[in-house]
């Protein structure tokens, strides 16, 4: 059954404090997961903020998920009472206005093969301001407005890891919305994030970074080579009218080389993209074709 959210007392908390608080909660949550999955007692981390750790522990204790390891004693060890037959859901009640903040939670779910889902409440700004003003300890209006500008909605087209997301629109939520939320949780429980996805995503990201780096290197190298070739041609008294045509031909050659590298149209380019000898081989090939072009103007 879903577990209750974590709440902070007080009214205005600086965003920098929220960041450190959020990071600390993720550390504690992973600490709990490790104890739960290994069947170990939950022990207080050596590095902790006592007040934050106590709030964290209270959340689980109030729901009967943990109990002191030593009855009637103030202990830093707790027995986890969760059973395998009981679905356990952690609801992180926070704005998570940047995708990067939510991605940290996704990484934690992936690391331990847990289900992951997102619920995005798309509420109009004016409604948010009205509800905030009705709170016992409201935040300043400017903070709500700033949050509205910063918040990044789930992007299912761009981020595959956000596919299991639900956006609820409107001022009031109905029983149909409740059914959608329950369906979202059930889907997450039945489809835990696979650890192997980390390798696939990381390899794809690494390949993209490598390819972009190689293309950048090639572009810079070709530019330097063209500049030197043009200087040599000028020293050999190539006519200025022909210098312009020569430059156009060399730049066209550069564009063709880069496009072939980008598209992998030729087997040799594919080898270069994965071979440590890429720089010398590609520059040699480019230099040879450049020389063939220059010969037309010198001889």
TrEMBL record:
Q: Which Pfam families did the record assign?
A: KTI12
Q: Which UniProt keywords apply?
A: ATP-binding, Coiled coil, Nucleotide-binding
Task: Please name the GO terms of the biological process aspect recorded for this protein, alphabetically.
Answer: selenocysteine incorporation
Q: Name one GO molecular function term.
A: ATP binding
| InterPro entries in the cross-refs | KTI12/PSTK, L-seryl-tRNA_Sec_kinase_euk, P-loop_NTPase, Ser-tRNA(Sec)_kinase
Q: Which residues form a coiled coil?
A: 236-267
* Protein's name according to its UniProt entry: Phosphoseryl-tRNA kinase
Q: Which source organism does the UniProt entry give? A: Crocodylus porosus
Q: What is the lineage of its organism?
A: Eukaryota, Metazoa, Chordata, Craniata, Vertebrata
